[in-house]
């Protein structure tokens, strides 16, 4: 199904995925909007985090890597004359009992195969994220 965007006035577009999900895209007040929705740039970054996360979890399950927690933080690299230089940077934190090598491989695989990451790569935007392995919390002794 196509995604449909409908103008709501000002700088607001209500986007509908044709199923049951909607999101409002707009501009922040400092850019002339009313800050009633996320910016389109932030929406792309949100889509990237979701795509990386779901892809990583699919590959972890296939490889038998138990993920107990996952946090992904990305941002457009602010370097460059227009505020961006065609690069997204960030961190993928995975809480697991698995090795750092396994986590690094999962993150590389997710970057290479996540649909939104693939789209960004085709557009010439590099996704540069660092993998961080976190040990699960050890329950207190009794």
What topology emerges from the helices and strands here?
Elements: E1 4-9, E2 12-16, E3 22-25, H1 40-63, E4 67-76, E5 87-96, H2 100-113, H3 115-122, E6 126-134
Parallel strand pairs: 5-6
Antiparallel strand pairs: 1-2, 2-3, 4-5
| CATH class type of the largest domain | Alpha Beta
CA-based gyration radius: 18 Å
**Distance separating the two termini:** 55 Å
Total beta strands = 6
- SS element count, helices: 3
Shape call:
elongated
CATH architecture of the largest domain: 2-Layer Sandwich
Mean of pLDDT: 90
Going across the major beta sheet, what is the strand order? 1-2-3
Helix content: 25-40%
* Main sheet specs: 3 strands, antiparallel
* Helix and strand composition category: alpha+beta
CATH topology of the largest domain: GMP Synthetase, Chain A, domain 3
Question: In percent terms, what proportion of residues is strand?
Answer: 25-35%
Compressed to H and E, one letter per element, the order equals EEEHEEHHE
Q: Poorly predicted ranges (pLDDT <50, ≥5 residues)?
A: none
CATH superfamily (homologous) name of the largest domain? K homology (KH) domain
Number of domains: 2
Describe this protein's structure.
The strands form two sheets. This protein has a three-stranded antiparallel beta sheet with strand order 1-2-3, with no helix packed on it. The protein has three helices and six strands; from the N terminus they run βββαββααβ. Helix 1 packs across helix 2 (100-113). It has helices at residues 40-63, 100-113, 115-122, and strands at 4-9, 12-16, 22-25, 67-76, 87-96, 126-134. Helix content is 32%, strand content 31%. It is an alpha+beta fold. The protein has two domains: 1-38; 40-134, K homology (KH) domain (GMP Synthetase, Chain A, domain 3, 2-Layer Sandwich).
